[in-house]
Amino acid sequence: MQNTGSRKTSSIEKRSTEAKEGKEEFREPGFWETVKEALFGVRRPLDCIQVEVTSRCPGRCIYCPHTTLRDRWRSRDMEISTFSRLWPLMRRSARVHLQGWGEPLLNPAFFDMAGLARRAGCQVSTTTCGLCMDETIALRIIDSGIDIVAFSLAGAKAENNRSRLGVDFDRVCEAVSTLQAVRQKHMAVHLEIHFAYLMLASNMEAVRGLPALMKRLGVHASIISTLDYIAGPGLEAEAVGPMEPEKIERAEAILSETSAEAVRMGLGFHYELPDSSADGTSCRENIGRTLFVSADGSISPCVYVNVPAEVADPRRRVFGNVLERDPLAIWESDEYRQFRESLASGRPDRACQSCPKRFM
Description:
The chain is α/β, with parallel strands linked by helices. The protein has one domain (42-359): TIM Barrel, CATH 3.20.20.70. Helix content is 35%, strand content 14%. It has helices spanning 4-20, 31-40, 65-68, 80-84, 87-90, 110-119, 135-144, 169-185, 210-217, 245-264, 327-331, 334-344, 350-353, and strands at 46-51, 93-98, 123-128, 148-153, 192-199, 221-226, 268-271, 290-293, 298-300, 320-321.
């Protein structure tokens, strides 16, 4: 019997080497293809590919599995050769979001990845803690064509952002100001600066200070979310679940008032809370048109079912690895398709059954 596994590994290694050396060719959209896409729209069945360019992070946020599972965490960077295998998917996706369970700007190949995604015709965005930001990085972001950079927050002042241990609030504000200054200097109107704000149940009132902070720093929009991944015992209290009407009512009152203030100031302010009356057949992660690729190349429906830790996780769902199989074939596989259809039909996979994102 021939060793087909060895032959496959050899082919993968050869492709990886070629990608690293810049020999592997990726056909960019030609002139007429670009015109056709502009006039009629390219057939892109995927809205977004979320890519974990690294699982390394300098932060120690109390609500994150990077902190609660730190003894078993797998810190790793995605190789550019692994990212290059996503080309067929990128040509069929509107956006590539470069961020997973880590700080994306720590990966030395980050801007190579952004460039390749842009060549595929995708919009490119990222979420950062801000600790790596300086003028050089800011200029590279401007030049890369990235259109959204979101900075993570869990409070609008230093005293109510303390859940983000290791990520100094003033340093984040400095990072936003640095990127904004470079953006304005180079008239980079294509780039929007956002806040990705986590509203914890014990810290709801803090969000009221967000519009003023946005105005001061020139942030265009904020996306407000609540804790929906319970990374350790006791963190359930910080979540806002679909069966917690009192928490939902309080959060809605605060967010609706804060949203109205933001709108009066000409700022974007977006939030969505769990709804106990929802039928649970959809998902805020939009798994029917998005997917997640971990740093090792494995493909999953979302970040919550592919946490990079050496633990027995019953929620873990991986449908293939781009180093072993064509990513389009993984997306179109019967197993993956059935997973997506099970949610839409009201019979969600076990991994999704208790997820609050089904009720948003």
